[in-house]
Amino acid sequence: MLIASPATGPRPSVTPAGTLWYDRPGERWFEALPIGNGRLGGMVYGGLPTERIDLSESTAWSGGQSTIDLSPTARQELPAVRKLLLAGDYAQAQRLAGEHLLGTRASFGTNLPLPHVRLTFADRGPATSYRRSLDLDQGIVAVTYDQGGTRFTREVLASHPQRVIAVRIEADRPGAVSFTVGLDGSVIPGRTTSTEAGVAFSGRAVESLHSDGSTGTAVEIRVNVEAVGGTVRRTDDAFEVDSADSAVLIVAVGTDWAGEDPVRQVETLTATAAAIGFDAIRAAHVDDHAGLMRRVSLDLDAATEVDPVPTDRRRDDLARGGRDDGLLALYFQYGRYLTVAGSRADSPLPLALQGLWNDGLASSASWSNDFHLDINTQQNYWAAEPTNLAECHTPLFRLLQLLAETGQTTATQMYDAPGWVAHTVTNAWGYSAPGTDLGWGLNVTGGAWLATHLWEHYEYGGDDEFLRDVAYPILRGAAQFLLSYLTEDQGLLVSGPSESPENWYVAPDGSKCSVAMGNTVDRVFAEAILRDCAAAAEVLGVDPDLRERITAARARLSPYLIGRHGQLQEWLHDFEDADPAHRHTSHLCALFPERQITPRTTPDLARAAEVTIERRQSAAGWEQTEWVEANFAVFHARLLQGDKALAHLTNLVADASEANLLSYSVGGVAGAAQNIYSFDGNAGGSAAVAEMLLQSDGQEIELLPALPTTWQNGSVRGLRARGGFTVDISWKDGRLDHARIHPSRTTTHRIRYGDTSTELTFTEQEALIVS
């Protein structure tokens, strides 16, 4: 049984998030260490004799707004495609859909990498005692080494308060700091020049693979240098510092996205930062960054608090079959760190496919570094609410507000429907048309899936003003579209024509098709949006007629079905998979992030979902990649299978993350020629750990629902649960020891541990719960 009493004494302190460290400089992008302030990112190599900081900025986009992306024949031909599908003529429907329903991307664009800051130091011989580290708690990369009898130190940070990257270079001997600074390696056209204070770059983010080669944002970069002692000298495109005691670099980037003046941006940012100095920049940065990171700590009873083995070797040991619970805890915090560094409340755009850090590979691939709406963008934010980073979710809501505007045109012109719709991909200007190819382009509920994050944010925070002003108008528009879009088929309401991203099925005549009616993923998010919209309307006391329509429609949605193999059907009919090893399992969104299928409420469907997972990963050529491993980890957490969740989390770190622990999409999958960084695995891994330790549905909080058997002792502090709760949990010998639950308001709520569920009344005082 569970026993609750008022918590006494101070809340246990939150331990630091941990440190990634290395005993050699980074030579590859996947060895560099990431910093970011929500808009400006850097990858720090810590090199000798040359330091390199790769720059990226969230609004440095090629392309622009477009009004010609919809097929002019889509609205006319869509009913014919639907009729063919309902009649079972799948091959003909596929052909017609390919001719008339797909979009174009004349000026879609991509986020592009920027030049890198290059620092070339005076060569003083071999270096010893080298250490390169990233302190997740403080958000600072530090490099230290001995060379020529001198101890050198660098600190690099990306300040959110000052909106710049700041670098300090010091030595323990006067006059030992000498270097040249430049801006190199640009993939965008532009010019680098020296200035009175440092170096500057002026260019434009244009490319011809994803846009017209001439449209894109203007980009300005300034690197200002302030040396203490020594001398400085300008060359044509570089700035030299000789025999200084120390030096500080301020890096600023500006673009004209959303009508801003990039030159004024960088001049103001560098001048303001220089005026307050590095010490003040550092102090404000640590206070700002740590204020978010220190909300949550995780202790998995690792053998040593500070491991003497460098992080890359620990990952290698894990890949060879070793056990390292401390590294898994570090990975959990790393996903939180990247969320803080890449997405702040005032960030102009949310985390893209590569988060804030652009390796140049996705932007030069057949797919681009954009916002994928068929899982990747959603997975980028799975950790935000449960790991106590709710304000980092905010940029996603601004993108949704934009899509709700642009998607009205698509809903009207393509579907003759009210409300708004978005499909599989979008960009910095709110692209909402279908994609350009069958198999992935007709994901009609991509925008609806994204919109479920609005209600999730409300469930955790309970902000009625947010619900009224931001969430409800978007949810209402998405619901209005779905009510119009759903079609009656033998008394049921089904979606279509649409695709289950990014999979294909074998039609009865043997043809391979992707377009269908009644795809399970559409049913999942039709139910989710209609439910969330009605719940929001009830809270706000509005739209009673709409609520009645929603209630009637939800009652007629097609049921979930179990196929001939015991699997959860991905399509309305029990088609065979054209690719049994495909990475996408979109229909399992009913299990996570939704709770329409659970082991306790729908055990047969939960088992069918498990069969689907088993069949996918056992198929020859299973497309194991970063977001899939994270996905399977949260699936098993929802199935209350902690050991299986841990296996996939371990695979994510060991087999789909690199030396710097950044997750990657494996080469050979989805047309990728090589491993390409993708942010979603990092965020998804953090979300999986949170789901293993705490789950909530707004009515019940479950403690340790999927605790792995090997995690015998540990504690977590500061996780969030729906309903406005903050939860600390400690466990010993594989069982709950106690939980400390702090509510945001007086309320009654159920608390579950294992098979025991107890309803408790919470005041604003913390409650201590023991088993």
What does this protein look like?
The protein is an alpha+beta fold and 771 residues long. Helix content is 31%, strand content 25%. The strands form 9 sheets. The protein has a 9-stranded antiparallel sheet. Strands 3-4-5-6-11-16-15 form a 7-stranded antiparallel sheet. Strand 9 and strand 10 form a beta hairpin. Helix 7 packs parallel to helix 9 and helix 14 packs antiparallel against helix 15. The chain starts with a strand and ends with a strand.
Summarize the structure.
The chain is 31% helix and 25% strand. It starts with a strand and ends with a strand.
Order of strands, widest sheet: 2-7-8-9-10-17-14-13-12
General form: globular
Please count the helical segments: 15
The overall pLDDT average reads 96
- Low-confidence sequence ranges: none
Cα Rg: 26 Å
Tally the beta strands: 37
Q: Mind summarizing the main beta sheet?
A: 9 strands, antiparallel
Kindly estimate the percentage of residues that lie in beta strands according to DSSP: 25-35%
Q: What structural category characterises the helix and strand content?
A: alpha+beta
N-to-C terminal Cα separation, in Å?
Answer: 6 Å
Helix content: 25-40%
